[in-house]
């Protein structure tokens, strides 16, 4: 099928049209993987679907037309803080020294986005030779929030806009950047991996695409400079797979020697073992927090002891997020329902263990967590009502929609509470960025969300239009905290950001297995380091409590 061509006075417009939306004047072009319209101007019906600045569609559109549209419209100027300027300088120093990667592991809410933009722009300027340098930014979901946040942040730094061509894309869109032969369609000078821990499992489609685009298998010289950014790098050193190329570089080896990061670390003496196809701590290390910390510090030294350093971690100068237990006393009927669900779970787990069925074991854990969370919904709702009455804005973090997020939101609305809903990628017909802004501007008292990262819900946030979010104190509850230390740390950072203290509460049913799990989570969640999101000792303890110690840990954390 031929591609459309613009005549004199016309332009090729690429459109960002949701699945199922169709217009007669726009057609799908497989070669571009986008809908296209040719004409002098977009019609009013098509204007809402125009390619946004720094998007994949705008990137291609600019290449197809002789005249490029402005990179970004009006934006709120961003004034970098000293910590962001110094952080960017550290990244630039690493790039200038010839390093191919850098790990920015600052705590949640410390302003990593602006730090990354400043650094990428400066590195891009230095790499400009025959063409305008190009920067790729990969972001977490939901894209409607994370992409908008990055777009506004880049547009607010006019020097950065001028320094390079910027492409912001979600991990699921990365395959679009590969040609049919699997090779990258574009050459990037800098690649930013926001929430880099998303790329720790190398056997996923998006990670394979990212590694090709970022030249992971290629020689150190000439590779794009990769900035990995995350406040929660890994559960243990073997998960730092996304740093394989720079670990190879600091050891004077080829990237191929570090294609399997866990195997190479084990060869270097780390107490690791392969289990269910992935690397984790050895039994000896699993039982010793001191041993884990010793080897974590050893690996960190590979990066921070370099001159200049290849890693930067700075804690939030306003302290760690406060976290308190929130037990719910179940009434007799609720306790009977809880006991019944616990018995069912034990039976299902026993059968799954007998048959060595990981799928059934994982399903049993998920069902129990869902039903236990559903039983506690009235208690969380009552707590939220009290917090709102006290003049606070409340965030509720849940892992499941139908058994937690949705019933909590519906019960609050029934009580006259205004609720913003951010359910993963958004409920049907819901614009999650509009929902977020409703909460931030004080039009909603409560935000119920299932995402783990990449959204800001803190007080006094500087919004894209130059206004500030409400100053009401924020308080949050982990209704379903999950078993992943990485995910939990990310959730805490949604309101504990940019100098704003966000108080958190961890909900559980009193005198149940949830209480035992909560005690482990409370102890382990804050026992983190600047390289490890949470060690796995706590996860092993939780697995034993559930009779699920025979399962792979990913069957528990779900990632």
Produce a short descriptive summary.
By secondary structure, the protein is of the alpha/beta class. It has 19 helices and 17 strands. The model has no long low-confidence stretch (mean pLDDT 88).
Please, what is the average pLDDT? 88
The strand line-up of the biggest sheet is: 6-5-7-8-4-11
- Report the sheet-strand fraction: 5-15%
- Name the structural class: alpha/beta
Helix share of residues? 25-40%
* Biggest sheet overview: 6 strands, parallel
Q: Count helical runs.
A: 19
| Strand tally | 17
Anisotropy-based shape: globular
Radius of gyration: 24 Å
Low-pLDDT stretches are none
CA-to-CA gap between the ends?
40 Å
What does this protein structure show overall?
This protein has 559 residues and is an alpha/beta fold. It has helices spanning 56-64, 82-96, 112-127, 143-155, 158-163, 205-213, 244-250, 261-267, 283-286, 289-304, 332-355, 358-375, 377-389, 401-414, 432-440, 485-492, 513-525, 537-545, 554-557, and strands at residues 11-15, 27-29, 34-39, 101-104, 134-138, 165-169, 190-194, 225-229, 272-275, 278-281, 311-312, 323-328, 393-397, 419-422, 446-449, 474-478, 503-509. It has a 6-stranded parallel β-sheet with strand order 6-5-7-8-4-11. The protein has a 6-stranded parallel β-sheet with strand order 12-17-16-13-15-14, sandwiched between helices. A 3-stranded antiparallel β-sheet has the order 1-3-2. Helix 6 (205-213) links the parallel strand 7 (190-194) and strand 8. Helix 11 packs antiparallel against helix 12 (358-375) and helix 17 (513-525) packs antiparallel against helix 18 (537-545). The longest helix has 24 residues, at 332-355. It starts with 10 loop residues before the first strand and ends with a helix.
């Amino acid at each position: 099928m031929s591609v459309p061509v613009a005549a004199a006075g016309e332009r090729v417009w690429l459109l960002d049209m949701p699945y199922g939306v169709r217009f007669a004047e726009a057609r799908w072009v497989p070669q571009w993987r986008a809908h296209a319209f040719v004409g002098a101007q977009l019609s009013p019906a098509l204007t809402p679907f125009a390619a946004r600045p720094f998007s994949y569609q705008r990137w291609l559109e600019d290449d197809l037309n002789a005249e490029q549209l402005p990179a970004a419209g009006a934006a709120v100027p961003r004034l970098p803080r000293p910590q962001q300027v110094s952080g960017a300088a550290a990244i630039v120093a690493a790039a200038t020294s010839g390093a191919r990667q850098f790990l920015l592991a600052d705590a949640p809410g410390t302003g990593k986005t602006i730090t990354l933009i400043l650094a990428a722009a400066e590195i891009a300027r230095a790499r400009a030779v025959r063409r305008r340098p190009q920067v790729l930014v990969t972001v977490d979901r939901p894209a409607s929030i994370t992409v908008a946040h990055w777009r506004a942040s880049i547009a607010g730094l006019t020097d950065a806009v001028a320094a390079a061509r910027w492409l912001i894309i979600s991990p699921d869109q990365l395959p679009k950047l590969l040609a049919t032969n699997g090779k990258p369609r574009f050459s990037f000078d800098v690649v930013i991996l926001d929430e880099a821990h998303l790329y720790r499992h190398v056997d996923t489609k998006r990670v394979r695409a990212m590694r090709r685009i970022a030249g992971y298998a290629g020689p150190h010289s000439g590779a794009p400079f990769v900035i990995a950014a995350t406040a929660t790098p890994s559960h243990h050193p073997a998960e730092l797979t996304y740093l394989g190329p720079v670990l190879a570089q600091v050891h004077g080896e080829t990237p191929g020697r570090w294609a399997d990061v866990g195997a190479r670390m084990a060869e270097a003496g780390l107490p690791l073992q392969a289990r269910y196809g992935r690397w984790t701590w050895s039994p000896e290390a699993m039982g010793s927090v001191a041993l884990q910390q010793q080897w974590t510090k050893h690996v960190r030294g590979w990066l921070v002891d370099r001159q200049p350093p290849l890693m930067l971690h700075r804690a939030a100068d306003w302290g760690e997020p406060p976290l308190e237990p929130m037990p719910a006393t179940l009434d007799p009927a609720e306790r009977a329902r809880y006991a019944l669900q616990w018995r069912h779970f034990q039976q299902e787990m026993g059968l799954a263990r007998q048959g060595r069925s990981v799928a059934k074991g994982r399903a049993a854990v998920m069902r129990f967590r869902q039903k236990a969370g559903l039983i506690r919904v009235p208690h969380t709702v009552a707590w939220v009502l009290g917090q709102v009455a006290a003049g606070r804005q409340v965030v509720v973090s849940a892992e499941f929609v139908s058994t937690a997020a949705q019933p909590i939101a519906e019960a609050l609305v029934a009580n006259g509470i205004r609720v913003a809903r951010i359910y993963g990628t958004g409920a049907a017909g819901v614009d999650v960025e509009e929902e977020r802004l409703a909460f931030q501007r004080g039009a909603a008292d409560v935000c119920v969300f299932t995402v783990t990262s990449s959204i800001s819900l803190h007080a006094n946030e500087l919004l894209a239009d130059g206004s500030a979010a409400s100053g009401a104190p924020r308080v949050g509850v982990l209704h379903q905290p999950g078993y992943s230390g990485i995910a939990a740390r990310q959730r805490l950072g949604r309101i504990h950001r940019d100098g704003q203290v966000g108080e958190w509460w961890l909900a559980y049913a009193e005198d149940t297995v949830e209480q035992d799990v909560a005690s482990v989570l409370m102890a382990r969640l804050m026992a983190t380091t600047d390289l490890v999101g949470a060690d796995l000792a706590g996860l092993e303890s939780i697995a034993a409590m559930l009779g699920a110690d025979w399962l792979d840990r990913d069957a528990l954390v779900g990632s």
